[in-house]
Structures are given as C-alpha cells and as structure tokens.
Amino acid sequence: MPFLFSDEEYVKLFVMDKERLDNLTTLRRQRVSLVDELEGDVDDLVEGLVNLEVFTRDDREVVLCLPGPRARVRKVLDILECKGEEAAQIFFSVRRQPLKEEKTLHHQSKDFVKLKQKHKDVLRRRSESMLHYNTRHGEKKLFSEHYVNLLLVDGHQGLENKRHEVLTFGQKRLIWEQKSSALRKINSAELFSNVNEKRSVKKVLVTGVAGIGKTILVQKILCDFGRNENHLTFDFVIHMTFRDLNLIDKPTKLRELILRKNGHLAKEVDNILENDDKLLIVLDGFDEFKHYRSSDLDVFVTEPDEEAEVQEIIGSLMLGELLPNACVLLTSRPTAVNHIPVGCIDRFVLIAGFSLNEVQDYFLRYFQDKDLSDQLFNVVVANKLMLTLCYIPAFCNIVCCILKESNCLQKENPKTMTDIYVQYLVALLQSHTKARTETCPQGHKANSMHEMSDIVLKLGQLAFQRLLEHQTLFYGSDLDMAALEGYSVVSTFLDKTIVQEQGYTEEVFSFSHLTVQEFFAALFCAMTDHPLPNELQNTGSEEETNSGHLQLFSRFLSGILSERNTNILSRQAGLCCNIEKANSYRNKILSDLTRLCENGANILNSLHCLFEQQDPSLALEVQPTVLRINVSDETLSQMDYNAVKYFLNLKEGNLLEMDLTGTDVGCDALRDLQPLLLRCEKLWIGENTLTMDTVQVIADVLQKSDLLTHIG
C-alpha cells in the first residue's frame, strides 16, 4: 500500500529536505566562483579539512597528485559533494574564516586532536575504578565490570522536603515499577538528545534521593567518554564537584576552576572555551553546595576570565549567561532543587535506582559467584525491609557488606533501619580488626576493642557536632579531625579529598553519606551523657519535626537505645549505652505518643521511634484518653505503613479517627490496613486518592463495620 501524506505533510517534508540539502546546493551553484576564489589557498584548505577529519589522508593524496591548483580545487569540491551535507557544512564554516586565522587553526587542530585524546585518557584513568565505602588498598574493582544499570526516568519530580529523602523512597519504587510501561526510560547516552525537534537540550538536572547513584551516573558518563563509547558529540567534558567548590573562599575565575584539576588543558583552555558548543560541564552534588540558596542571581558573569564569587560563576553557568552554548549536567538531592533557577533546566531526569533484576545483578557482580549470590539474594528477598532498602544502590552495597562479613547476618534478621546500620558497623569493625587480633596475645584483644570503641565515639562526636551545625565537610586541620589522625579505621567511614591550594595542599573529610553521619551522631548521643539536641527536648514545638532535620537522627537514636542493639554493640563492639539516657528516651517516646494521640498532631516520626525500639511492652504503656492517628501530608512508604500497623496492632479498642489526607494512599495499602480501618470512627482521605478501586475497598469496610461514620 503506498504511503499517503496530506498537503501540509508534503510541504513539511519539502522544507526539511530543502534545509538538509542547503549547503550541497550552494556548493554546486558556486562551483565556478569557488575555483577562482580558492586556487591560491587549496593546499592549506586540504590540510585544514584533514585536521578537521572531513578528509582522509588518502583524499589528500588524491587531490595533491593533480597538476595545477584549479584542478585540485575541482577535485576538493567533487570529494565534498560525495561526502554529503555535513562535509559541505564544515567546508563553508572553514572557508568563512580569514586565511591567517585559518592557518593558525589548522596548525592548532593537530595539537587539539592530541589534547582531546589526552583528556579522555585522564578521565578514563580517574573513573576506571569503582570504590565502595569500605574499599581497602588492593581491593579496587573495574568500573566497567561492576557497574549496574540505573533506571533513569524523564520528568520533573514533585518535591517532598519535609522529610528525610531516603525514607520516602520505598513506595515510590513500587509505583515506578507499576507504571514503568507508561514512563519514558532513557540511558545516560541520551541525556542531551533533543526532547523534540523544536527545543535543544543544553541544561540537564539529574535528581534522586541520597545513595541512589547520582555520583555513580556521573562516573559512568566520564568513563564512557574516556573510553570513546558515548557522548562523542563533545570535544571535552569538565567535571567539578560542589564539595570541591565549597573550599573556594575568595573571588576566582571559571578558567581557574577548570584548571584546578585539569592542568593539562592550560595551553588550549581558551580555545576550548571559545568552542563552548563542544563542551560539557558536569556539576555534581548541588545540594552539598554551601551557597546553594544564592544561585538565582541578579549579577551575571559573562566571560571565563571575569573574576567573581564562585556562586556567581556557577549561577551564571546554569542560567546560560556564561558559556551560553555549553551543555551543563547538574546533580542534586530533591531538597535543594527549589533553589535552582527556574527556567534554566531543559530536562529533568529522575534516578529511580535498581529494579529487582538490577538488585540481583548487583549481588552477582559483588560476590562473583552465581550460586552464592543467588543464595544470599534469596535471604534478602525473604526480608521485605532489606529488599526495599536494596533498591537504593548505597543500601544495596551496605547489605552485601553485612552478608559477606557476618555469614548471612545474625540469627535474627534485621527488622529496622537501625538494625541494618548496627550490623554494618559491627561487620566493618570486626573485618578491620580480625587480622590484628589473630596475631595478638589474648590480653591485647580487649585493648584493641577498647581502642576501636574510642575511635568510633570520636567519629560520633564529630558527626554529632557537625550535624547540629548543618555541616558535612571537615578539614584535616580541625582539632576534632586531628584527634583521629593515624587510625586506619577512620577511612572506612570517612571519604578524604586532597585539595590543591596555592603553595600547599589540604585534606578535607566527609562521611560517605549523610545517613552514615546521622547514625554516628546518634551513636555518640546514645553512648555518652551528652544531652539531647534542643530540638528534641522541646516536645511542644512542631517546627523542627516538620523540617525533617533530625527525624532520622531521632529514629537512629531510638533504635540504638533499644535493648537488642545495646546488647550487640556492647558485646561485639565494646560500646556501652548510657542506661539513664535509654530510660529517659523511652519515657520521651511514651509522652510524645500520648500527647500526639490526644491532640491529633502528626504522629509518624514518633511511631517510627517506637517501631525502632521493637518492644511491645512500650506500646502497651501508651494510654491516651483518645486514639487519633494523623499521618497526613506525607507520601507514605511501606516502612511508614509498617510503623503505623506495628503500633495499632498492639493497641486495643477503637480509633477516634485516622487522617490519611495527602498521603497518596492506594487501594493495596487500604486493603492492607483494612483490619485497622474497621476500628475507625472517622477516616479522613483526600479526594485525589478516591479511585474506583479505593472506593470499593472503603465500601467493603463500611459493609463490615458500623464504626466508620465519616469520610473527609
């Protein structure tokens, strides 16, 4: 059957075809005048086309063997016509430059080609190894052999900055999988491909929760570019991290920022910046930038050699005022995205982490043994909490580490997030000290454990103080860092960067992830007599709770102070809990739950603290006059539902009300909660969640119960 087009479609095809042939048509029409114009410069022209990789060396020999300059020009035009539109376009762009500048460009292009390859070699060398949080000397793995594909999804993410990012992840993971057929998945090589014919993509924002793989994606891009596998439309890729940019405390220039870690580009950096349409700048970790609130500017930097504050340079890059033709890739956690200038981003990409297949693939690459990896993967599948966490690559690595070091975990599998972190800590400490204690006399083993516990507490003190100050970077010259000098175990939990300054270098440290810092901070608070942060003592104020700053810290603290984890830490890590603080914190959980059940304020974080304790007797001690459960305005994850069910399954009697407004609760979750809903007198649920399925679930509840009297 012949293809049929409307008149409008025929016109569109004609216009597209005309544009495609424009340079070739011009080449044919101007053939006579081009022969006259170029006969005096044909040799330089041929050399330039070879350097620009339009002509091959064989093409050059074919042209230069002809007698006379006019015959050579005709042969050049013949070859260009055979090579097509792109070759003709490059020819005209070279021809428009003045001859002297053109000759200079031709001589530079030889060096330029060599520099391009040298830069790729540098990026390949820097990105070829995959280093995990606990990698030791001699244990590096090739990135290309251990990289597991990440699920990248086109589309802007709705921000949820009122709670900790990692804890909102569980249910979203399931939703993404359910809707995967309707989402447009992309790979890293397609990040800068045009969204449509009308709009080019220059600025790309990649976002995702902590540990989801943003930096690994950046490493993938650098590695592919260095190996000549992807992103070859760019001549150069410049990589900068906001952790490094935080160390700059005086006015600087974009040129200087680039050369800080790319000194080999010094001779050609001006040419690189002039041809910014062939340049990709990667800015990793915007949420870690200490000036991230100041990037939407009124004062712009427009030249690479213009001196300005670092936030002005970065803001101008993002807004396209500086290097307007360059491509920029920006990564950030969701909580900082609101501070990225509106309108400057052409594409939003969300990293959705691993699917179930990728988790299994990660296990295989980690353990390098199919039978063993399958066995341990089945252990994780049997534990819903661990499986949920494994969708986040950073947690997947932590779980693999636990499985490797502790022979399929302790006898009792972890039930809470704190359980996993405690076993992770114990596994790493035991792995680090095993070789030393096996060769030491028996009396020295206790000394080794005592020394290790002291180091852990010093790390905890550092984490605690800096968490309250909202700081994630620590200088090696700081007094609290000096106290950790010489202890090799510190590198298991802290990342170190050597920063080049004028005339000297300086070490800068940070915990591998913010969650690790929060865990160590809670560990210090639990093991010492240091008072709780003021925000946790002011139980009448909801301000800090709503901000989410110390939510995960408070959950870790509750889990560490639980009886089962204090026993593990004392027995296997020499870390003894402050008993008075443990009792005090239990009382705080009781009073908070009682108060929130009675006044109807949001109770979710307190339910998580109770869940971390895993002590049914504690829930039974909560005796409010009325029972209200408000978890509204939170997108609930499976872990959230687990915390709610844990508490209510231990409480008898009716619920005055349950508020699920703004939680995106679905029919599956309602079915799971159905036994609890039968005890409700009032259920509040948002209209946007009332699908036919959810209405049917609620109708089933109404048929079985006289108690549920109001749906809001």
From TrEMBL:
GO MF term list: ATP binding
Signal peptide range: none
Residue intervals of the CARD domain: 19-93
Top-level taxon in the UniProt lineage: Eukaryota
Residues covered by the NACHT domain: 202-336
Principal place of residence: other
Keyword Iron among record annotations: no
UniProt GO cellular component terms: canonical inflammasome complex
Keywords attached to this entry: ATP-binding, Cytoplasm, Hydrolase, Immunity, Inflammasome, Inflammatory response, Innate immunity, Nucleotide-binding, Repeat, Ubl conjugation
Cited Gene3D superfamilies: Death Domain, Fas, P-loop containing nucleotide triphosphate hydrolases, Ribonuclease Inhibitor
InterPro entries per UniProt: CARD, DEATH-like_dom_sf, LRR_dom_sf, NACHT-assoc, NACHT_NTPase, NLRP_HD2, NLRP_innate_immun_reg, NOD1/2_WH
Entry keyword Hydrolase: yes
Cell compartments where the protein resides: Inflammasome
SUPFAM superfamilies registered for this protein in UniProt: DEATH domain, P-loop containing nucleoside triphosphate hydrolases, RNI-like
SMART domains found in the cross-reference section: FISNA
Any one Gene Ontology BP term: inflammatory response
Protein known as: NACHT, LRR and PYD domains-containing protein 3-like
Organism field: Gouania willdenowi
Gene: LOC114480432
